Amino acid sequence: MPEPITHFHGAPPDASGPHDHQSSPVPDSPLRDLPHLMNRGIGVLAGLGPAMAPQAQALTGLRDRLAEGRFQLAVLGQFKRGKSTLLNAFLGEDILPSSVIPLTAIPTFIRYGQERSIHVHFQDKRTEEIHPSADASWMSRTLLGYVSEEVNPKNIKGVSYVEITHPSPILRDVVLIDTPGIGSTHRHNTEMTLNFLPQCDAALFLVSADPPITEVEVEFLRQVREKVARVFFVLNKIDYLSDRERETALAFLGKVLAERTGIVPDGRIFPVSARQALAAKEKGDAALLDASGLPGITEHLIEFLAQEKTRVLREAVGGKALDLLSDALLQVNLEMRSLQMPINDLEQRLALFQKKIDEAKRERQHTQDILNGDHRRVVELLEEQCAGLRKTAREHLESVASSAISTAEDLDAQVAEDAIAQEIPVYFEHALGVVTATFDSELIAILSAHQQRAAALVESIRVAASTIFEIPHHAPAAQSPLVLAREPYWVSRKSWSGVLGTISPDLVDRALPRSIREKRARARIGKEIQTLVVHNVENLRWATLQNIDAAFRVFSRELDDDLATTIEATYGAIEAAYTRRKEHADEIADRIRTLQKASGDLQSLIGVLAPNISSKV
């Protein structure tokens, strides 16, 4: 799992907008046989020899991507709402630790695995792998050693995040993500969670009946609605309520959500007793499990959403597979046509196609110049934002220090130091989210336009080949939305620096009036604040710059790879046929028969895929 300080991401491909929380039944996907179709395609391509090895490998990668796709569900909630108990109920074992004090702000990713294991990822890039026994309590105690404030106060062990693998069937389609509790004593933990959410497919927000919802949760949800496409709600601890009290609590929660947060649940708030659900699974008590309400969450939030993502993923992968098979068909038909036409005619058409390729290469250089210019402009925008951030951060921290000094009974610089140290993580965590959101949208806008131009350039090669050699060609499926981050990750950094240098007053200060001493203290602290601001803004600037550079570099490389692959697949097929005509004339008849069969097989596969894909794009 990647660990950049920040990363750019796109909206989930099926998201209709950050405020859309409605859902509808998911029909059986017409692409449910896609893995079988892809396996057939791989077999056809493998039978054509080394020339088709890259296409066979690419199709294999798409098949594997389809098999690995899982729904990413973040579980959110305030301290003591029962998040850990609910997650344990999903797993059927008491594995995630609970605590009477808040746990450290360390997220836990729960993935499917045939064996139970713990992978602890540290901020210095180390990973410690632990294979526990089947004893769930032992696993819980082990985790507590990393995520508890009591055992790991203020995360002195430097843990970035924890991964758990578990054989629970529910994890075959879903990755559960246990996030730090909101509204804790560490205010920047809430900002860290908000910065993480856009990378998830949905969020499950847990409240309980004691009380149904707090002002802290309402304020958090106002921000959540802008970060993630879908939010679902669970009212926990219903076993403490009568039927009438439960209905009253559900009605009250729905009203508050609609009026105070702008989020309208999708027709249901799920009442559950996580405690009863866990006990029911541990005892194998089906009646108690049904009474707990957990099956309702499982069916709707897990199975439904996982099926929906599978459908979307199948459509996306199916579109790419269709394009790949169409390119392979073009390549097969080009080679077959080149083997059949008179040699003089072949040479003339090959020369025409070479001119088109030369034009495309010149156009590629032109697009690279435009891309480089856009890259420079984005970097200039970053520098402008950081310059403004230095000014506003300095003014804000000076205000915090001044307020602390003015309200202190004894004029002690330590009071200002403590106030600044507490404020810096909150301030810069928020700044990180703002900067990330700004450059997220900026890069998506810029690179999406380049994506369209790049696709047109690559397609021009295919069109030229099909036109010059008089071969039918399937236009590619519509471009998928540009997505720059594909796996949820957790921001990893040791801390925002808030440590001031020694700013003890001079001895002469003690004899001066308080107003003068305050002025001198502010001046000394102001110099230290300037140093802290420069340091923290530079950390943010550097991390963001690395991701900007990486986004443009990766995009440029992928464009070059796509263009080179397309040229190789088209011109290479023709050139290979030309060489075979010159050097291996005795093999031509056999090769044509092989190509004819492959062409028929590929057309058959495309005939199955094309109607289903074209109706989705």
The string of secondary-structure elements, in order, is HHEHEEEHEEHEHEHEHHHHHHH
End-to-end Cα distance: 31 Å
**Major beta-sheet overview:** 9 strands, mixed
Strand order of the largest sheet: 4-3-5-2-6-1-7-8-9
The figure for the number of domains is: 2
Kindly report the average pLDDT value.
79
Morphology call: globular
The portion of residues assigned to helices is 55-70%
- What proportion strand? 5-15%
Which parts are unreliable, with pLDDT below 50 for 5 consecutive residues or more? 1-29, 485-495
Radius of gyration: 30 Å
Total helices: the number is 14
Helix/strand class: alpha/beta
DSSP strand tally: 9
Give an overview in words.
The structure is a single chain. By secondary structure, this protein is an alpha/beta fold. The protein has 2 domains: 69-292, 3-Layer(aba) Sandwich (Rossmann fold); 342-583, no CATH class. The chain has 14 helices and 9 strands. The chain has helices at residues 34-46, 53-68, 83-91, 136-147, 188-196, 215-224, 243-261, 274-283, 286-292, 294-340, 343-407, 413-468, 514-583, 588-614, and strands spanning 71-77, 108-112, 117-122, 127-130, 159-166, 174-178, 202-208, 231-236, 270-271. The chain has a 9-stranded mixed β-sheet with strand order 4-3-5-2-6-1-7-8-9, sandwiched between helices. Helix 6 links the parallel strand 7 (202-208) and strand 8 (231-236). Helix 11 runs antiparallel to helix 13 (514-583). The longest helix has 70 residues, at 514-583. The two termini are 31 Å apart. Residues 1-29 and 485-495 have low confidence and may be disordered.
